[in-house]
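Structure Section — protein described below
Tokens — whole-number codes for backbone shape
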Amino acid sequence: MAKKTKIALIEDDQTISQMYRIKFEACGCYEVELAENGIDGVKLVEKFNPDIILLDLRMPAMDGDECLKEIRKHDWGKNIPVLVLTNIGLEEAPSILKSLNVANYIVKAEATPKQVVSLVDITVSNHKNKNSATD
């Protein structure tokens, strides 16, 4: 059996988190772990070692950009692909995101869960191909 793709979903809205968890896990090829804020998100990524991170920007305790900045400081978090999944338009996004190696930026209201699953698949596949080319 193929290894499941591990997703860290860092999102404070539990309804959205659960919807995405159900959508991803329904196909049987994903393992999803959740964090409700940036502080817990950093701990989750370190412990869970995901293949990809889905990251909201506006959250309690620590916003997504601060969370990602903290993740990128560590060897274990430097190269994990990140999809920002937020309702903040790209023009309003923190400018620091450009320097934090974000693979894609998705406005929740403009993408269906099916489209998000597709983007995750493409991003993980591209990341694996890029890494196998450099091994």
The longest strand covers residues 5-10. The chain has a mean pLDDT of 93. The helical segments are 14-26, 38-48, 64-72, 113-134. The two ends are 24 Å apart (CA to CA).
